[in-house]
Amino acid sequence: MFDTVLVANRGEIAVRVINTLRRLGVRSVAVFSDADADAPHTRAADLAVRLGPPGRSDSSAAETYLRTDLLLDAARRSGAQAVHPGYGFLAENPAFARACAEAGLVFIGPPPGAVELMGDKINAKQAVRAAGVPVVPGSQGGSPTDAELTAAAAEIGYPVLLKPSAGGGGKGMRLVHDPAELAGELAAARRVARTAFGDDTLLLERWVDRPRHIEVQVLADAHGRTVHLGERECSLQRRHQKLIEEAPSVLLNPETRAAMGLAAVRAAEACGYTGAGTVEFIVPGIDPAGPTPAGVLDFFFMEMNTRLQVEHPVTELAVAVAAPTGTDGPAAERLDLVEWQLRVAAGEQLTFDQSDISFLGHAIEARICAEDPERDFLPTGGRILLLDEPTGEGIRVDSGIQAGSEVGSLYDPMLAKVIAYGPDRPTALRRLRAALAETRVLGVTTNAGFLRRLLAHPDVVAGRLDTGLVERTVEHTPEVLASPLLRDRSETGGAAPAESLYYAAALARQLGLAPAAASDGWTDPFSVPSGWRLGGGTAWTTHRLRLPGHDPVTVLVRPAAVDTPSDSGPAFEIQIGEAGQPRLARAALTPGRLHLTVDGLRTTFAHTTDNGAGGGLGPTQWLGQDGDAWAVHPYDPVVDRAGAAGAHSGGLTAPMPGTVTVIKAALGEQVRRGQALLVLEAMKMEHVITAPHDGTVSELRAAAGATVAMDELLVVVEPAEGTDEESTGAAS
Question: What is the CA radius of gyration of the chain?
Answer without folding.
Answer: 28
